[in-house]
Amino acid sequence: ETGHINRTFKVSHEGCCYLLQRLNPIFGAEVHRDIEAITARLHDAGLETPRLIPTRAGNLWLDHEDREIWRAMSWIDGVNHARAESPALCESAGKLVARFHRALSDFDHVFHNRRSGVHDTPLHLAGLRAALEHHGGHAAHVDVFLLAEEIFERLDELPSLGGLPPRIVHGDLKLSNIMFSPGGEAIALIDLDTLALMSLPVELGDALRSWCNPEGESSAEPVFCRSHYEAGLRGYAEVAGESLSSAEVNAIPAAVETITLELSSRFLRDTLEESYFGWDAQHYSAAWEHN
């Protein structure tokens, strides 16, 4: 059993393995209609992908009696990495993500489950400003305020990511959402509840801020490895070819920094609001300390 968001089990039956999950309420059950349509498209394009396994009644999910949503999916056999220990992993990940994007580039799909405000940077900054105003007595307020001022100033200097065309994206390309072969080849994207329409620079910015930190996300040290960055982009460009416009390509560096700062603003807000879904109470006396 595992999973920060969805409660997840590996199930064996008659020599085969399956994924069994209880869906987190933050996702609507209709997300399964999007997963089914998009994974069918990926399968037809020759990409390995987890597929939903219908119930005996033919439903894509099961409504449990206490309002829990459960689903079963095919098992992707592979290796999962919390951090990129080498540029080669990033290069292979970039190639897979480009294949994913190309397979869906001309797919006309109307989403049933719509995620709003996920990478709406002005919205997140407004939330941080409100938290600063409402939690002036918090023990970490001064530290949060000083960091927030740096974030506001830097984001004002970065070019806008607006006006770029929306495309079908994975929506959460941290390295742990990519399955690799034992030899380090990226073979499939998993955790598909975040499928959405988004600009490719934002998708890649979120991916690269994760891939380029070889120390992992639990490290308190700020690390961004340029060799990982170059390898990830090299792999992506090799497969993507000319499928991205020049405006999309030119926006990628700013997107990496924008998404990094956006996520930082969200953690700062969570610090003041004492909200952290991954709070390790065994090592931190309060959620804000872990944040």
Explain this structure to me?
This protein is α+β, with helices and mostly antiparallel strands. It is 42% helix and 13% strand. The chain is built from eight helices and nine strands. The chain has helices at 31-44, 87-104, 121-134, 141-157, 200-211, 226-240, 246-273, 287-290, and strands at residues 7-13, 16-22, 62-63, 69-74, 79-80, 166-169, 178-180, 186-189, 196-199. The strands form three sheets. The chain has a four-stranded antiparallel sheet with strand order 1-2-4-3, with no helix packed on it. A three-stranded antiparallel sheet has the order 5-7-8. The protein has a two-stranded antiparallel sheet with strand order 6-9. Strand 1 and strand 2 (16-22) form a beta hairpin. Helix 2 runs parallel beside helix 6, helix 3 (121-134) runs parallel beside helix 7 and helix 5 (200-211) crosses helix 7. The model has no long low-confidence stretch (mean pLDDT 93).
The number of helices is 8
Mean pLDDT: 93
User: End-to-end span in angstroms?
Assistant: 25 Å
Radius of gyration computed on alpha carbons: 20 Å
Helix content: 40-55%
Q: What structural class is derived from the secondary structure elements?
A: alpha+beta
Beta content? 5-15%
**Which strand order do you get reading across the main beta sheet?**
1-2-4-3
Low-confidence residue ranges: none
How would you spell out the order of helices and strands? EEHEEEHHHEEEEHHHH
Tally of extended strands?
Answer: 9
Shape: globular
Write the layout of secondary structure elements.
Layout: E1 7-13, E2 16-22, H1 31-44, E3 62-63, E4 69-74, E5 79-80, H2 87-104, H3 121-134, H4 141-157, E6 166-169, E7 178-180, E8 186-189, E9 196-199, H5 200-211, H6 226-240, H7 246-273, H8 287-290
Antiparallel strand pairs: 1-2, 2-4, 3-4, 5-7, 6-9, 7-8
